[in-house]
Write a structure and sequence with these properties.
The protein is α/β, with parallel strands linked by helices. The chain folds into 2 domains: 175 residues, Aspartate Aminotransferase, domain 1 (Alpha-Beta Complex); 263 residues, Type I PLP-dependent aspartate aminotransferase-like (Major domain) (Aspartate Aminotransferase, domain 2). Helices cover 36% and strands 17% of the residues.
Length: 458
């Protein structure tokens, strides 16, 4: 496909809203093709993609099995009004609900929507309804849950709310245990315990402003958590953190809502990332990779008593395109495909190989201050030569060089697609295809080293 890149960029600057777009490089990059782990530009240069549409395309671009499912559904039943039923909506909901009951021993139901933030808004309705209209929530510093008016109220970044006010009361934000930047003199586990203890203090008496000991009621309805922070920098908490936190929540009747939009669907080596931490959610929100990026479909799972038709009656929330047959058909195929083999083991082994490569790079580059990860959700924190001070400028150069497409791999021109996250915007958040090969991981390490060397030289 041949296009006039300059003409398209001029038209984009004139006619497209910038409100739904963030240009991380100048000029913005235009891609015209994709396959597997790669994106292709107008010149045919292959760009190894290590962020896969923010983890929406977990199973690779142009995954034949999933693409064929979409095409087959287009020919069978591409559209149906949402007040009517179709088979794959029911089958997909059953798959998710039965899996949850098997893992957590709790009956529940699944409710669909079209995007992650919209599903977060649906979950807010569920927990507010279940708590007799309480509007206050807890959430984490560094947490990201979306940019609708509801979701932005529980997202810690003020910049998403600054011009628009609040749909509801802003959440109370609690520190997330960030092992690399923990206080000196503490182990990561001690730091996690300290955060839990500090949170538990809020319930010691009425004067800490969240708890009425006379009625045993909390003013807050729920705590919204990402088991691993996404936009916050793929921060993996110590293993003891969530069990301690959930104990405090259960003691005081506060629901735990788990946001799996970015980390769900095997990114961490389990279907849901929360499975790595030994706690049971009350509500779980999912999206992104459910359809491998082929269709906007998201949803929530909630415990039966929170979402049954008496408690949460018909019409409580609705979207015209929710549970559309194209999306539910692909989503069901994703779950079937990944349950036919030991997919979690495949992801964990690939992640271990990737992490080994990052640690090898770290041993040669002082600027890589921290590497960590779970499954194929991995991070590399870019610092100054002291190995700790955030170095956003260096990472920005790396991103620019990667998207310029002038790298070399075995005599062929290459580019590299990276995502930037973290509290200081100095973290490479790696979310490669879960189908990535060992040779592609080897290529990634070569290209990352080229990026570092070139960026440091400029």
């Amino acid at each position: 496909m041949s296009i006039n890149v300059q003409e398209l960029l001029e038209q984009e600057a004139r006619y497209c809203s910038f409100g739904d777009t963030v240009h991380y490089v100048d000029p913005p990059k235009i891609f015209t093709g994709c396959d597997g782990s790669y994106m292709f530009d107008n010149d045919g240069t292959a760009f190894l993609d290590l962020q896969m549409w923010y983890s929406a395309v977990n199973f690779g671009y142009k995954n034949k099995r999933l693409d064929d499912t979409l095409i087959r559904q287009i020919h069978e039943l591409p559209q149906v009004a949402s007040q009517y039923l179709h088979p794959t909506k029911i089958e997909l909901a059953k798959f998710i609900a039965e899996d949850a009951q098997k893992k957590w021993g709790l009956p529940g139901r699944v409710h669909f929507n079209v995007g992650g933030a919209q599903a977060i808004d649906d979950s807010l309705k569920v927990v507010r309804n279940a708590s007799n209209g309480k509007t206050l929530m807890f959430a984490f510093e560094g947490g990201y849950h979306g940019r609708t008016l509801g979701a932005s109220s529980i997202t810690s970044s003020y910049r998403y709310r600054r011009r628009f006010g609040h749909f509801s009361d802003r959440a109370q934000f609690i520190p997330f245990p960030y092992p690399f930047r923990r206080p000196r003199g503490m182990t990561a586990e001690e730091y996690a315990d300290a955060i839990v203890r500090d949170f538990a203090r809020k319930f010691e008496n009425e004067y800490h402003a969240v708890w009425d000991p006379k009625t045993n009621q909390c003013e807050y309805a729920a705590f919204y958590v990402e088991p691993i922070q996404g936009t916050g920098g793929y921060v993996v908490p110590p293993a003891n953190f969530f069990t301690g936190l959930k104990s405090v929540l259960d003691q005081h009747g506060v629901l735990m809502v788990v946001d799996e939009i970015q980390m769900g669907f095997w990114r961490t080596g389990t279907l849901w990332s929360v499975e790595n931490f030994g706690v049971t959610p009350d509500v779980l929100v999912f999206g992104k990779a459910l359809t491998n990026g082929l269709n906007p479909l998201s949803g929530i799972w909630a415990r039966e008593e929170l979402i049954n038709p008496t408690t949460f009656p018909p019409g409580s929330t609705h979207s015209t395109f929710a549970s559309n047959p194209l999306g539910t058909a692909v989503g069901l195929e994703v779950l079937k495909m990944t349950h036919e083999v030991d997919f979690g083991r495949q992801v964990r082994e690939a992640g271990a190989y990737f992490l080994e490569g990052l640690r090898d790079l770290q041993s040669r580059h002082k600027e890589i201050g921290d590497v960590d990860g779970l499954g194929l959700a991995l991070r590399a924190e870019i610092c100054t030569e002291d190995g700790f001070t955030p170095n956003r400028e260096l990472l920005d150069k790396m991103v620019d060089i990667g998207l310029a497409g002038g790298l070399d791999y075995q005599g062929e021109r290459r580019g590299l697609v990276l995502d930037v996250g973290g509290y200081y915007k100095n973290v490479i958040t790696f979310a490669p295809s879960l189908m990535i090969s060992r040779s592609e991981i080897d290529e990634a390490m070569v290209l990352l080293e080229q990026l570092l060397n070139r960026a440091k030289a400029t």
